[in-house]
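Q: I'm writing up a methods section and want to include an example of the input and output format. Could you take the sequence below and give the corresponding predicted structure tokens, formatted cleanly so I can copy it straight into the document?
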Amino acid sequence: MVLGARQNDDLSIQAVQALNFRDTGYPYRMRLGAIQAVAAPNAAADGSFDVPFFQALPADFTGDVVFGLGGHPAWQTTDQNGDVYWERAAAVSALYFPGTERVAAFDSAQCNACHNRLLAHGSNRNGNVEFCLICHNADAAVCDVNPLPDGSCPAGVTMEGYGMALMIHSVHSASTTWLEGWAQDITYPQAIANCDTCHKDGAYDVARTSARAVSTDHGADIRIWTDDIATTPNAAACGSCHSSVAAAGHFSSNNGQVGVAKSDILTVGGLPNGQEACAVCHGTGSEFATELYHNPGIAE
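A: Here is the clean output for your methods example:
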């Protein structure tokens, strides 16, 4: 689960802004400029310094954490005509896992093979798709404008889930339903069933047992994840392409849960993971393993 807070733009302090509702589900953030302004003056003789992290983790926090460093160095330059403008470099985003490293089902190098260096959000997230997972997590469902003071989405405003698997599968499959058809005109230059294009070998048969149900609607209050409308992880990922009524019935008949309150998702170890039986038939080494039908040349 990702906890929300943003660093103030005032580079002289490490203050935290009042949390905007849309920040719920975002990571704790610190700006490099703020770190330098506060910590660098107290640097040791070798140039190293301690970073005064501006927000403490909850006392009951369990699990692993990840630190991400993303952004773009920018500088002002003058061209031969005397025009002044800004240049910036899209540096590859970096991750640091103090504990157990997250196992990625995809390979960023394979994504960059098509996109050159994949850039997003004004060249602030670049080249390392694992970095995207920090915000594009399973609880990431928002409306297109800031929610109302009670945490609800204004009437008539589009609401959608932005979890990585849901979003990327929907974009590549030119979904006509995700984000009201925003991706429907995208052309994927090969068979959509070729999962090896992005995924590591054998890493996409079924979702991890620890994968959370994927939110598609933040419910009545964006600050509370338990009232999100969500779908269990395998059904959410596979349902991006297998989107028929029959497919939804197949998911449900194998203990998948589609479009239900996250508080109603069956739990494993206290997390809303669901108890899908997909691995029985589609898991690695099974008769109908996903990889047998989603490799180059098998499906068109």
